[in-house]
Amino acid sequence: MIVSLRRGAELDAVKRELTGLGLWVTSVERTREGDAFVVLGKGSTAVPVDRIERIAGVGAVSQPGSPHPRVDALGSDVDLGDGAVLTRARPGMIAGPCSVESEETIHRIARKLAARGVRLLRGGAFKPRTSPYSFQGKGRDALAWLRSAADANGMKVVTEVLSELDLGAVAEHADVLQIGSRNMQNYALLKGAGAAKKPVLLKRSMAATVEEWLLAGEYLLAAGAPKVVFCERGIRGFDDTTRNLLDLGAVALLAHVHGLPVVVDPSHATGRRDLVIPLAKAALAAGAVGVMIEVHDDPSCAESDGAQALDPSELDALMVPSDGKRGMS
Ligand code: PEP
Ligand code: MN
User: Fold this and answer.
1) DSSP readout, 219-243?
2) Which residues surround ligand 2, an ion (CB under 5 A)?
3) How many A from CA of 145 to the centre of ligand 2?
């Protein structure tokens, strides 16, 4: 974005106001005639142009065409209906098992979560597993179990759609469609998911740049998705002591510079249950409007990702913080 200054404008005062609005002044240029231009860094879209135009000394603001105008126009809050709103002031908790294993298990876990104030129930019916020999999920049966467990406890369903073949069934049972990390750039699936006209939780691919992630969001919105929530779940690092490398810088960038709704999945980011709560807190401090956490009440028997699963009671650290601060919903 380029901000041109009026003749005689106080350059330092304008720069101070711009940085005070959270904008990133990358350089100041001058024409041979002495006219000054302030160049703002990429991603300075969170502040409305007319707010910048009101600064004393500013002449005009020009914004080069953005490749993701629909994403840029998203607000940072997400209303999922029935009072489930994700905001920075009151972040949302999405919790549930990695995979929906049986009707009884998902009902039991949902009950325990609902009792702690969790309103968004996650659980995979179709599982993207690295090995074809690992548990692949219980498929369509699991979708029905997940839906009935959510309904029995006044919760909403967040579940992954792994393939275009299952889009109809997943959209019928889910309140929020999850696009998994491995599918972030499956453009046919993104178009299909957008056309289902449900809110979408878009996980960042483990090897995607922020710009690629935003463009995947643009695909969803262009295809008709009413809402997109970005989910950072860790990217590939060089160090395997944690499962992935949680990119909290990207979370802060989306939240504070782009003004976008972003949630964090510390479970897949770390792969270790002892790091989930500390990183969930860090995510909220970085500007996330929510977290997504894997929970199981018998992790040693979980069909997938038991090592990173928390017991439902461990969510109390976030839902009901002991320091008297307002918890999550
Ligand atoms: C999940 O949330 O169930 C999942 C498989 O995560 P990811 O796509 O981030 O690996
Ligand atoms: Mn998992």
Assistant:
1) HHHHTT-S-EEEEE--B--S--SSS
2) 98, 305
3) 18
